[in-house]
Specification:
mainly beta, Deoxyribonuclease I, Chain A, Immunoglobulin-like, 4 domains, 8-stranded mixed beta sheet, 6-stranded mixed beta sheet, 7 helices, 31% strand, disordered N terminus
Length: 674
């Protein structure tokens, strides 16, 4: 967390093409560094025996911003010669290995003060595109694509003398949604007028270019050597950060000066606030904030000004943007710099490399009070070596170091969650186990919440792992069927998976026996239904039709029992329901028939008229006991004249009291009794 100035180096990470799908990590170290080669007319600080500036860049990769240390991913540079970038990359590849670093070969047409350029680590970043902006005073882009004259309240020097560069960068393994844009400027120096009109014009140019040439949700860094000698009161700084300038123009994203509200105004990571806003400084002793200074490393101007900047727009801060992308990393702990640069005071992984405020204003980089690089005490290169290499010494073909400090920020690629696979619909039998699994990508930590029919599930009963990538349901019941989804979330987004349908299928339940035997009227009936194939216990019921009169079904045992009083035919269906609610059935037809009648030997003997005038009959039987006695005068029409039961000896004595009234009468015995 600090800011240097000078040779602004911006580390960014990008990847496209063949690297797609191989996301390498989360953090990009972005550096802005004015390396002073054009002013000196030499690359000796790179190619000389001390290789001072490459050593500084190596040390930046060892230095901790909070708890993180990693090699530089992107570095923007100013004040270059025609050979600076190639020499710089060659030296870095000697340190890190062939092909590790490359530079963008897009030509910067600027000649005054040397062109700007960009170096990047090839396995983490790639340049998607690069272009130079305009020079001169007609640089304020309008929404219709035309340019108009930039505002110039000072009336002195104005116009953009050195064309800013803008680079579109992409982290390797990520897509276009994670691109970010870096403007690299080397604004007019002391030759500007008192209010900095030329620098103001350059700020208008890059802001308007971002407004009308970049996508709606562009992530933007404004970096470089802006020569902000008048401090935060400079119109250039106010224009970049969306404030009102001395000419009364409001440059905020939503002001009338703009034709859209795209978020292009910058926020200042040195503001010590979350979310960040702007910083106030005047490049004077009254600032009482030496941690801001990044110009120069030695001499009478040593650490007296903040003139180099690296300002992200709001979308590069999680506090303003919940949709992810490349964002400035938060700094939650500074174990290597608790006393001078605590995270509680400096909430972002951003700082001037080599200046943590431990030295007073006007101190050289090599001051004994400088504790900026205490974490490099035992590294190679060591802090002592790096302080010396930071500081400008000599001139021309013998110079080393630079008159600017590097500015360093760590940026994380924050990815909203995205479901890449699953969950899949499935069909399971009752009593089995179902598992739904989802695969998701996004910046960790990812949180998971499984739902059934849009209701959040809890770990209870047969449901478990409701906040993991795999939901488990054991011993499935019919009630577990439904639509399942998982909500995946992280700090910047929420996504709901596609619906997975769970079908819970019953097993085949067989109800037996295949058929039931017929019954006999007035005879006890007892048959047992059985069930198999499901989960016990079973319950039984008559689903349709009816049992014969006098019979009942025991719902627990499946027994059909009772005594049918009458003959008849009944068709009915018996169902069996198992413990999980699954059902099976069987159809039956049961006939209740008359009992088999066995008659004989039976004899009916006429005994003639008795003394009382009644006609007497004697019936004997060894097999049947109850008889009806019927009489007829013509053997066709029979009338019941009485009934009786044989005695223990098999005899029944019967008298026809009406016989005297008939000239003739026939008799017969009928069994069974109705």
């Amino acid at each position: 967390m600090k800011l240097p100035q000078s040779c602004m180096m911006v580390a960014a990470v990008l990847g496209i093409g063949g690297c797609a799908g191989e996301a390498w990590g989360k953090t990009l170290r972005v550096v802005s560094y004015n390396i002073d080669c054009a002013d000196q007319g030499s690359d000796n600080n790179i190619t000389g025996s001390t290789h001072s500036v490459p050593t500084v860049v190596q040390a930046i990769g060892l230095h901790h911003l909070g708890t993180n240390a990693q090699p530089v991913d992107v570095m923007s540079c100013e004040e270059l010669t025609s050979t600076t970038l190639s020499n710089f990359v060659m030296q870095l590849n000697i340190i890190y290995g062939a092909g590790t670093y490359a530079y963008d070969k897009t030509t910067d047409p600027n000649t005054g003060g040397g062109p700007d350029g960009l170096i990047y680590r090839t396995n983490t970043v790639q340049v998607v595109s690069a272009r130079a902006l305009k020079t001169g005073q007609t640089v304020l882009l309008q929404s219709n694509g035309t340019y108009t004259t930039a505002y110039s309240p000072g009336g002195g020097s104005n116009g953009v003398p050195r064309a800013p560069m803008v680079y579109r960068l992409r982290p390797v393994g990520y897509g276009a949604a994670d691109d970010f844009y870096m403007y690299v400027s080397h604004a007019r120096s002391t030759s500007d007028d008192s209010v900095g009109d030329a620098r103001y014009a350059e700020a208008q140019e890059v802001r308007s270019d971002a407004k009308y040439n970049l996508p709606l949700s562009a992530h933007i860094l404004y970096g470089g050597d802006w020569n902000l000698f008048n401090g935060s009161g400079e119109n250039a700084y106010k224009c970049l950060t969306g404030q009102t300038t001395s000419d009364g123009i409001n440059w905020a994203d939503g002001s009338a000066i703009w034709a859209n509200t795209n978020q292009t105004q910058a926020c200042d990571p040195t503001s010590k606030t979350t979310p960040p806003t702007t910083t106030t400084w005047g490049n004077v002793a009254a600032d009482n904030a030496s941690y801001l200074y990044d110009d120069a490393t030695e001499g009478s101007y040593a650490m007296t000004s903040r003139i180099d900047i690296q300002l992200p727009n709001a979308l590069m801060f999680a506090a303003y943007n919940s949709n992810g992308g490349v964002q400035l990393a938060p700094d939650t702990a500074d174990p290597y710099d608790v006393s001078n640069f605590p995270a509680a005071q400096y909430p972002y992984a951003f700082q001037t490399f080599g200046n943590n405020g431990s030295t007073t204003r006007g101190s050289a980089a090599t001051s004994s009070s400088n504790h900026s690089l205490d974490d490099l005490a035992s590294t190679v290169p060591s802090a002592t070596t790096v302080y010396a290499d930071l500081q400008l010494t000599g001139s021309g073909s013998s110079f080393t170091g630079s008159d600017h400090y590097p500015i360093v920020g760590d940026y994380i690629v924050v990815e909203p969650p995205s479901v890449t696979a699953g969950p899949a619909s499935q069909t399971n039998n009752v009593g089995t186990t179902a598992t739904f699994t989802v695969s998701a990508t996004g910046t960790a930590p990812l949180s998971y919440q499984w739902r059934k029919n849009t209701t959040n599930l809890t770990n209870a009963g047969n449901v478990s792992s409701v906040t993991t990538t795999s939901l488990t349901l054991t011993n499935l019941a019919l009630g577990d069927a439904g639509s399942y989804t998982v909500v995946v979330s992280n700090s910047v987004g929420v996504v709901t998976s596609a619906v997975a349908v769970l079908v819970v299928r019953c097993p085949v339940i067989t109800v037996g026996p295949a058929s039931l035997p017929d019954g006999t009227a007035q005879t006890a009936y007892n048959q047992t239904n059985t069930a198999s194939g499901g989960s016990a216990p079973y319950s039984f019921a008559v689903m349709s039709g009816s049992l014969p009169a006098g019979l009942n079904l025991n719902t627990n045992s499946g027994v059909i029992g009772g005594t049918p009083p009458d003959v008849g035919t009944n068709t009915f269906t018996v169902t069996a329901t198992d413990a999980n609610g699954c059902m099976g059935n069987s159809n039956y037809t049961v006939v209740i028939a008359n009992p088999t009648i066995t008659v004989g030997p039976v004899s009916l003997i006429a005994q003639g008229f008795g003394t009382n005038g009644n006609f007497q009959l004697t019936l004997s039987s060894t097999t049947n006991t109850g008889f009806e006695i019927q009489a007829s005068t013509n053997l066709f029409n029979w009338t019941n004249i009485g009934s009786g039961t044989t005695d223990t000896n098999g005899f029944l004595f019967f008298q026809d009291t009406n016989a005297p009234g008939f000239p003739k009468r026939f008799y017969r015995a009928y069994w069974p009794l109705p």
